[in-house]
Design brief:
alpha+beta, 4-stranded antiparallel sheet, 4 strands, about 10% strand
């Protein structure tokens, strides 16, 4: 296991510290350049700078260094491909988001009465019916027969039986109102007489 850092010209490898060591071995591979014939210069100890913790450890052979370098290059290409794929995915998502923002089609809510034509007409119809109902109630309050007529199923067509019934209930209601008014008048008269008698007694005593 090791930590690898890539740059344009080198590959730096730091290996994990052994249990009995306090420092970590390192290697720096110089990336090979093309020679005069356009061929890649082979990896040798001349382009690999190593730091070994154990000074008695044998030096790496060219084939071992070349194999390790090939593996590091393969990992570098894989990382580059992953980064390129991620950038392409970001570009695709950005483009899709931009297209979605441009082609947005807003749905008009049913409850948006200012923008929905049908809802606006419905609201106006309800307001009209409410005004008509208020006018009708006001007229009924002024009409003495209204409380009795509303008890009939058909207000626009009164049969003779309906007219007789309305007449009877109206007379009965009138009679009840007169009796009630008479009772209130009698009670008022009795109170006035009692107060007058009381005042007369006080006057006589004085």
């Amino acid at each position: 296991p090791a930590t690898v850092v890539y740059d344009d010209f080198t590959i730096n490898v730091t290996y994990h510290v052994d249990d009995i060591r306090i420092t970590a071995p390192k290697k720096e591979f110089e990336k090979p350049q093309l020679d005069e014939k356009g061929m890649t210069v082979p990896i040798t100890t001349a382009v690999v700078h190593s730091f070994k913790v154990d000074p008695k450890a044998a030096s790496d052979r060219n084939f071992a260094l070349y194999s390790e370098f090939q593996g590091l290059q393969k990992r570098e290409r894989a990382c580059i491909d992953q980064v390129a794929a991620a950038e392409e995915e970001i570009d695709r998502l950005t483009h899709t988001r931009r297209e979605d923002d441009i082609s947005v089609a807003l749905d008009v809510s049913f409850y948006d009465t200012q923008r929905n034509g049908e809802a606006k007409l419905r609201r106006e119809q309800l307001e009209k019916e409410a005004r008509e109902e208020a006018v009708r109630r006001e007229e009924l309050e002024k009409d003495y027969l209204a409380p009795f007529l509303v008890q009939l199923d058909a207000l626009s067509r009164l049969t003779q039986a309906d007219a007789v019934w309305v007449k009877g209930v109206c007379l009965k209601d009138l009679q009840g109102r007169l009796v009630e008014q008479a009772v209130r008048n009698q009670e008022w008269l009795e109170r006035e007489q009692a107060e007058l008698a009381q005042r007369t007694q006080v006057y006589q005593k004085n």
